[in-house]
# Entry
Amino acid sequence: MDFRFTDEQRMLADTASAFMQEVADSSATRQAMISDAGYCAESWQRLCEQMYWQGILVPEACGGLDLGFVEQIIVLEAMGERLHCSPLFSSVIATLALRSVPESAIAFSLLERICAGDIVSLAHTEARPDWGSEGVGVTASIGESGWTLDGCARFIPFGHSANTFLIVARHAEGLGLFVADNNQPGVHCQRVQTMDQTRAMADLTLTNVSVAREYCLSTDFEGTLDAVLDAARILLAADQVGGARKSLELSVDYVQERVQFGRSIASFQAIKHKAADMMVKAESARSLLYAAGCIADEWLSGYSDERALCEAAAMTSAAAGEAYFFTAGSGIQLHGGVGITEEYDIQLYFKRARSTEAYLGNPTAQREVVARLLLDGDS
Amino acid sequence: MHLRFTAADEEFRAQVADWLSENLVGEFAAVRGRGGPGDEHCFVEERKAWEQRLAEGGWTCIGWPEAWGGRNASIEQQVIFNEEYARAGGPGRVGHIGETLMGPTLLAFGSDAQKKRYLPGIKSGRDLWCQGYSEPSAGSDLANVRTRAIFDEPSQRWRISGQKVWTSLAHESDYVFVIARTDPQQKSHKGLGFFLIAMDQPGVTVRPITQLTGTAEFNEVFFDDAVCSAEDIIGEPGDGWKVAMGLLGFERGVSTLGQQMLFQTELDEIIRIAKSNGSAQDPAIRQRIAEAHIGLRAMRFNSLRMLSGVADDASLGREAMIYKLYWSSWHRNLGKLAMDVLGPDAELLLDGPYELGRLQSLFLFTRADTIYGGTNQIQRNIIAERALGMPKEPRGTAT
Ligand SMILES: Cc1cc2nc3c(=O)[nH]c(=O)nc-3n(C[C@H](O)[C@H](O)[C@H](O)COP(=O)(O)OP(=O)(O)OC[C@H]3O[C@@H](n4cnc5c(N)ncnc54)[C@H](O)[C@@H]3O)c2cc1C
# Structure
C-alpha cells in the first residue's frame, strides 16, 4: 500500500500542468471552443507528438507507453483544471474498448492509429433512458456479405472529428462491437450545439452501413461495455476533480482581491466557511478518484473484478460530479455579479460541471448503483 | 500509487488477527464492540484489564520506537493493526488518550527523564490519561485559559489553581495534562505552560457531568493548589501553546483508521436493519445509505492519502486539515440515518429509567462529534485560514 504518487507520476503531473498552462490558457480555450471542430488542431498535434498522452494506456506492442490508469488520470485532471478542449478522452475510451475485446489484426492496427493521433470514438448510446446497454440504439444484422448497421448513437465527445467509430450495436443474440470509418457510405456524424462549449458532442446516424465480418470485434460485448463505461466514469471524474479544484482556486483568488465594507470579502466568515466546504468536497472526491485509479489499474491487470471497478466508478463519479457542481456553483456566488458575466471563467467551469455531471449517469443514478450493490441480493 | 499490501504486511495482518481472536475470549468476550465515545461508561474495569492484556501481547503503542517499548511499526502496519482491531470487535481503548496524544507529545517534546517516567506506564496500559484543555471561558478560544500555575521556590513545585471542564474520562484517569498560565501578565497563547499532573491528590476534585444520553463520560475538574514537580512541565514556561498545538496534530494520526472501522460496523448494522424492515426499498433511504457508504470510503482514502504523504511534501498538512470536519459531519449524518431507517421504533427505549439502544446513543452522541476537538465552525476557520490562506478572524475585546 502506497497511496501517493511515485516520483515518475509526480513528474508527469508537473509536466502536464506546465503543458496545459502553455496550450490551454483562458483565451486559447475560448478560441478553441467556438471553432468548428471545438478543439485546436495544433495543440492536439503537439499533445500527440510531444506529450504522447494518447499512448498512455496503449500496449507497447502497438507503439504505446503501456503506463497505468493513474497516469491517465493525472493528465486528465490537469486538462480538466484548464477546461482543455480535447478529443483525448474519446481516444482513451476507445483504447480501453480495444484492449477489452479478443485480439485481432484490426484492433491492433486501430491501437496503432490511436498512437499516431487518429481520433477513434466509442459510439454506444442514445442515452434514452439509460447510458448503458439499454440505451443502445444501433442494430446489427448479419447477412451473406457481412454485417449491416442501422440506427443512431448520440452524445459522442468530438465524434464529428473522429476518423473511426467503434459502434456498439444490438444483434440477434446480444451486443456487438463494430468498426466503421467516418467516410464510409451511410455513416453520418454531426456536431450538436451544447450549453457547455468546451466538450463538443456529436450525433451519429447509420443508414444501411455495411461492415465486413472481421470488422466485428466482438459479438459478446455487453459485460465489456459496462466495464469500459465504468472506466470512462473514472476518467471523467479526473476532469471533474481538476475542474473542482480550479473553481475553488479561482474563487479564493477573487475573494482575496475584492474589497467591500472596508475589508477583503475573504475575511467574512460566511465566505471562508463556504470555501472550506468547497475544499472538503473537492479533496474528498480527489481521494476517491486516486483510489479508483488504483482499482482500475488492478482491473486492467486482472487483480480485481468488474464489481470492484463498478463500485469504485459509481462512488467516484457521484462524489466528483457533486464536488464539481458544488464548487463551480458556489464559485459563481462568491464572485458576485461578475460571476454572471461572460468575461469571467467561473461560468465556463459551471457549464462543464453540469455537462460532465450528467454524462454517463448523474450522481443520483450513481448512488443508486452503489445502493444496489449494498442492499439488493445476497452478495 | 497502489492499494495492495505486501506479503509481509499480509502476514502481519494474520498475526494480529490471530492474537486478537485468541485473546478476545473468556472475561474479554463481553467487551467486544463496546466502549468508545457515547459508550465509555460500559465495562470500564474489563477494558482497563484489556489494556494490560494488549500490552503483554506487545500490541499497545506499536508505532513507538523500540527503545520505548514500541514496535516501530510502519504506517502500513499501523493501518493494518487498527483495521484488524476494529474488525475483531476490539473494545474502545480506555488508554487511547495516553497512547495517541500524551505519548507522541512526550516523544516529540519531552525530556529523557519525562519519557522514562511516563512512557512505560502508558505503554503497559497501567496509567490512564485525560486532557485538561477546555475551561468555562476557554472553549473554542482555547488560548483564553485562566488556570494558573505558580512556581513555589521553597518546595520546588508548581502549584496549579483553576477549573477545567468537559474533561473526558477524568473520573477514570491517573494523570491529566493541563495547559495553564505561567505568566499572568501575558495574554492569549503567550505565557502558557504544559503540565503533567497526578489526579490522585487533595488539590484535584472531579465532578462528573451528566450528558444528554443520561450517562457521564466527561467531567469538571477543579484544581485547588494541586501540585506537580519542577520536572513535570514539558518544555519551558511559555512553551505551552506550542506543545498543546503539537499534540492536537497527533490527533489526526493512524488511530483514525480504527475509528473508521467502527463506523463501518455501525453502517453495516444500519444496512442490516434497512434490509430487514423494508426501508432498503425506499428510494430516499437508498440514496442516503449509498451516500454514507461513499463518504466512509472517501474518509478512508483521505486518511490513507494523508498518512502515505507523511514522509512527503509540505502540502500534506493542507489535506489533513479537512479530516475532522469530514468525519464528524459524516458521523452525525449517520446517526440521523440510523433513526430514519429504524422509523417509529427509533423512539422506543430498551428499558427504563433511560436505557438507550446503541443506535439511539449513536444518534444522540454524534451531536458531540461536531463540537469536541474543535467545532465544525472552528475547523472551517482553520481550513480557510491555514489551507486556503484567507484572512484570520478578528479578535474582540469582550471578556
Ligand atoms: C463529548 C465532549 C468531550 C470533550 N472532551 C474534552 C476533553 O477531554 N478535554 C478538553 O479539554 N475538552 C473536551 N471537550 C471540550 C471541547 O473541546 C469544547 O466543547 C469545544 O472546543 C467547544 O468549546 P465550547 O463548548 O466552549 O463552545 P464555544 O466555544 O462556546 O462555542 C459555541 C458555538 O460557537 C461557535 N463558535 C465559537 N467560536 C467561533 C468562531 N471563532 N467562529 C465561528 N463560530 C464560533 C462554535 O462553533 C459553537 O457552535 C469535550 C467536549 C465534548 C462535547
Notes: The first strand of chain B starts at residue 129 and ends at 132. Chain B has a mean pLDDT of 93. Residues 3 and 130 of chain B are 36 Å apart (CA to CA). Chain B is about 45% helix and 15% strand.
